[in-house]
Task: inverse folding
């Protein structure tokens, strides 16, 4: 009996834990045929978008095109078990591909090792709960990075639109070489690439203006709406298919004015651990040397949001009900690797370039500069630093933007706004919490007003209503401030202390420490003390707000 009770308690405790660790257990017991139909439709629709994008992003990464497909199905399967958002589809993105191109050196073995190391670092960060570090990457830095990346990736594909070969991957060299060799443009690639761009833009606009189908409409109208919506949603697949048919037609006729993708190996590579060394004609490159060749870079997940947001929108608009839609998408990618790779030979590079450019253009947020100028101009500094340096090297732009944002953040902490109100006593109100970089600024402000600016010198009330935490250095600084004011016959009282701050100050046992529950109580008590000492009351009352220099916008 006792054993059965123990087993039942274990069952009751184990099921919530399993549901928390495996989100699939939250929706799988309730799965229905209606959900299956919706997930099937959404998975097929997203799959028709993922396959051509995967081929295109492999081109951005500088890797053989099949690696784009290799990286597009496993995430779908894993996320079905561990994912919590039904709309999310995992896979390669343009920005991840751009970062890989900087480190993989066109070698798949480096790309695989980079993926393994990145996953290991992300796993360690998850186990150590270090995700908060990404909170220090501000929105202006992300916007500057994604906007610069959209321009970099788009211009990187101009060579394929023009049919140029041998263009370097560094942005400024790309611009120079592309303009210098503009006379070598291949007419066939250019015409097809521009036509694909126009078709993709037209289908995007058509989808954005497509009204919602009403259930009361005739069946023919609803079917027509579904056909148009599917065509606009799967526009990448349709454009690539059309371009491939054009290229195949030219091949049959015996002339080929287009630059084709070429052969793609069929099936999957062997499942094995990543290579921790690489054989070359000059010898074997050991693991340590390979790792040293992979510079560190910031690659927060927030950077992937703009590229995958489009697929999440496709998933949502397709009516996906559960993460099981990813199973359909991953299966479609596997079927493509198994049966369609021979057809990928005829896909023109200009068509894939058009797919990439079409996906990148919406990522450029031109309005962010105007919004920051209107809201807070100082945030333009990390935005512009990140934006400009990303054209040199992506990782330098991100690191520089984070450093600039960090400096601005630390400066605002070290020089908080302080409001000083003059009356019978001086009321000093810091605008934020006090940490050790700010205590010297606060001491200088208080002493300046109490001993120099005020005539006659007056006691101080420190209004701590905005202070939620202090550290030991602040406590030491306040002790020295109390002693300095005491030498001149003045006092310092605290009011509106929050409980954590009050406990710290009481524990410090500061000599002469006085505190009041409210500003009014402190002013009344201090005014009475000033009258008892025979000090003349102030005939005027004014306020001044001291802001850190340079932070007024």
Result:
């Amino acid at each position: 009996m006792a054993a059965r009770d123990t087993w039942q308690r274990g069952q009751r405790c184990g099921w919530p834990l399993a549901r928390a660790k495996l989100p699939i257990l939250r929706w799988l017991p309730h799965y229905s045929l209606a959900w299956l139909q919706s997930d099937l439709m959404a998975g097929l629709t997203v799959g028709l978008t993922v396959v051509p994008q995967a081929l295109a992003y492999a081109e951005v990464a500088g890797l053989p095109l099949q690696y784009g497909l290799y990286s597009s199905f496993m995430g779908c399967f894993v996320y079905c078990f561990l994912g919590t958002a039904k709309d999310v589809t995992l896979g390669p993105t343009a920005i991840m591909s751009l970062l890989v191109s900087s480190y993989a050196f066109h070698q798949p073995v480096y790309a695989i090792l980079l993926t393994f190391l990145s996953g290991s670092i992300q796993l360690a960060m998850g186990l150590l709960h270090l995700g908060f570090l990404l909170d220090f990457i501000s929105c202006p830095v992300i916007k500057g990075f994604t906007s610069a990346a959209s321009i970099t990736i788009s211009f990187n594909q101009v060579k394929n639109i023009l049919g140029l070969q041998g263009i370097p991957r560094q942005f400024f060299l790309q611009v120079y070489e592309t303009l210098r060799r503009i006379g070598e443009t291949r007419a066939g690639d250019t015409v097809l690439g521009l036509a694909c761009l126009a078709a993709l833009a037209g289908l995007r606009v058509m989808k954005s203006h497509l009204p919602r189908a009403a259930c009361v409409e005739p069946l023919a109208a609803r079917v027509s709406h579904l056909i148009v919506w599917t065509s606009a949603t799967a526009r990448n697949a349709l454009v690539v298919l059309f371009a491939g048919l054009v290229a195949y037609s030219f091949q049959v006729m015996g002339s080929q004015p287009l630059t084709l993708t070429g052969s793609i190996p069929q099936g999957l590579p062997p499942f094995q651990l990543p290579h921790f060394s690489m054989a070359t004609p000059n010898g074997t490159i050991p693991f340590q040397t390979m790792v040293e060749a992979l510079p560190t870079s910031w690659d927060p997940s927030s950077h992937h949001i703009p590229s995958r947001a489009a697929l999440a929108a496709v998933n949502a608009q397709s009516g996906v009900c559960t993460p099981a839609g990813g199973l359909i998408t991953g299966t479609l990618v596997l079927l493509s690797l198994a049966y369609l790779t021979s057809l990928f030979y005829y896909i023109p590079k200009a068509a894939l370039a058009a797919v990439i450019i079409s996906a990148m253009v919406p990522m450029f947020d031109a309005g962010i500069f105007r919004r920051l100028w209107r809201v807070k101009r100082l945030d333009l500094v990390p935005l512009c630093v990140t934006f400009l340096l990303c054209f040199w090297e992506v990782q330098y732009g991100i690191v520089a933007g984070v450093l600039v944002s960090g400096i601005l953040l630390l400066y605002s902490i070290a020089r908080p706004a302080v409001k000083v109100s003059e009356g019978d006593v001086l009321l000093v109100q810091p605008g934020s919490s006090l940490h050790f970089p700010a205590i010297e600024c606060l001491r200088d402000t208080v002493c300046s007003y109490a001993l120099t600016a005020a005539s006659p010198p007056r006691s101080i009330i420190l209004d701590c209503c905005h202070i939620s935490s202090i550290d030991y250095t602040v406590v030491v600084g306040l002790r020295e401030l109390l002693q300095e004011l005491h030498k001149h016959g003045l006092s310092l009282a605290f009011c509106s202390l929050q409980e954590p701050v009050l406990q710290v100050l009481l524990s410090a046992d500061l000599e002469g420490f006085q505190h009041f529950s409210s500003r009014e109580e402190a002013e009344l008590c201090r005014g009475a003390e000033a009258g008892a000492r025979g000090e003349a009351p102030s005939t005027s009352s004014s306020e001044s707000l001291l802001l850190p220099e340079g932070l007024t916008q």
Notes: The first helix runs from residue 2 to 21.
